[in-house]
Structures are given as structure tokens and as C-alpha cells.
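quick one before i forget lol
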Amino acid sequence: MKKNFHRERLTGGLSLIEILVVVTIFAILGVIVSSSLMLTLRGAKKSESLMKVRENLNYSLAVIERNIRGANMISDCTNSDTKKITYLDQNKTSTSFFCVNTGAAGSYIASGSAIPTSVRLTSDSIKIVSCSFTCAHADLSNPPSITIDLTVQDASGVGVESSVVSAKSQIYLRNY
């Protein structure tokens, strides 16, 4: 009877190796689950960043397109300063669109006649990476046009989570 009791006691418990195997398996599962969670969170931040950048870019382009399309004429079509376009609006008032501090922190797209009185079109969370307004004169088959080429970036995003979006649009004047 003593022999059976001793054998049962040895085979009924867990050995140190078995415990180490179980702990290792749980550790590996923990690493896999936490890695998966981190990738999901990073993807969500990237998606949020991309949406914020696109909304800012789309809003700016919509305002610029609407105003230039209804303009009477482009004031300076020499393309000497590609960061600014000046035009006469429907009321024959001279106004412009321009990019401020392109490539630097705090850069933005503005509408107005001068920086102190300008209206900011992009938010503080957006950085203008590149900006170009190119004018094309009217010819026999086409009215004057402006080509806008913008690249914007999420100013607060870091590394993989930061989004960069580019857009190019050509706008023809209706009222020239």
C-alpha cells in the first residue's frame, strides 16, 4: 500500500519542466496578442491621420476651385511666384491664394490679399510640404487656367503613423 501511495504522489503532480512549458506558451501567446493589438492601434492612428489630412486638403481645394472658377481674370500670369496666385473676383476685387512657410512647421494655405488679413484654409495640424500655383494663358480652344499642385502632411504624426497626401487640379475660368 505504501508503494502505491508513493507512485500516485509522483505521477499526480506537475514537474518543473511542465510548468516552464506552460509559462512559455502563455508568454508567446501574450507577445502575439500584444503585437496584434499594437498593429491595430497603429493602423487606426494612420487611418485617422489620413482622414484629417484629406479633409483639410479637400476643403482647401474646394474653396480655391470655387473662387478661381468664378474669377474674371488672373492678375499676374507670369508664374514668377508659384506659391501665390492673384486674381480679380466676380466683384472685380483683387484677392489671392498663397502658401505660407511651405515645408516648415506652421505652414498653411491662405486666402486674402495680405498675410495679416488673410483667412487660413488649413488647420494647425496640417503641414504644407509643397505648393504650386501655375497659370496658363487663354488660347483659341481653352480659357485661362490655373494648375494647383499641393502636398500636405499631418504635422502631429510621427513615423509610420504620419500621412502625406498629394493632389493636383486644373481649374478653368468661366467668366474671363
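fyi The CA atoms of residues 147 and 170 lie 4 Å apart.
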